[in-house]
Amino acid sequence: PGRAARSPRRGRALLAALVVLGLAGAIPVPSAITAPVQVVAAEPRHVFSAIDGIVGTLAVVPGQQVAAGDLLLRMDTRVLEKNVQEARQAMSVAQAELARNRAAAHYDADARAKLAVTQVELERARLELDFHLAQLERAELRSETAGQVLLEDPDRLPGAAVRMGERLLGIADTRRTRLRILVPLADFSLVDEGAPVRVTLDRSPLAGLSARVVRKGYTVSLSDEQVPSIVVEAEWETNAGEEGGAAVGTPDAAGGRAATPPAVPFGARGSA
């Protein structure tokens, strides 16, 4: 009888334990992952080649601050200058031919008949000269806005053959930045858009800054540590070019934007 009396108590105790464990499993536990992060330009202004040709000289270096109107690069103008010279010569010939026909038109029927043709040829020569002069003017690329030069490999451009519309470099407003986070592939499923991000920059490892995930990528690439990762972007207000570590999904990452830290150079590196 004593054993039978104890059995229901053990059963109730076991049931209570299972209920407690079940409730504990139902309570959501905040998860967080750690990943390397880089502060990049939010909306860089791209600079494209205005003509086909060869890049002559680069007038800026990566990270340089430029103002609107500053020269960025010059295309090789030798072919363009030759085209302008030939167009000027063709226009001079057309002007001389028109003047000769006008002078002879008073007594020569053939000259009067050629007047309309030589006028058309002169106009065509003028248009061709204007075109080549405009091409020569486009050989100098100038910045349309103030900002910081974005250029990964400055040695690649001088002497490179480029096509019209090809992207050559970028200009970034360092006041408008975002975070580029390389989330390990194994942790990517834990990241949701809108998740809070707590960032620690290498230049100030004791200061945590807040951001929030705005976009998840889908392409897998290798991080500097050769870890398969996917890019996740987060928004805040800070400077372009600095790197550090990001804790994605931490509860203390929520709540407001980060204060803007002092200006930092592009390319500073670190680890999370």
From TrEMBL:
It is found in: Cell envelope. Residues 241-272 are annotated as: Disordered. GO terms for cellular component: cell envelope. This is Multidrug resistance protein mdtA. Keywords: Coiled coil. It comes from Thauera phenylacetica B4P. PANTHER family: BLL5650 PROTEIN, EFFLUX SYSTEM COMPONENT YKNX-RELATED. It comes from the Bacteria. The lineage of its organism: Bacteria, Pseudomonadati, Pseudomonadota, Betaproteobacteria, Rhodocyclales. InterPro entries: UPF0194_transport (IPR050465). Gene3D superfamilies: 2.40.50.100, Helix hairpin bin. The keyword Coiled coil applies. Residues 77-144 form a coiled coil.
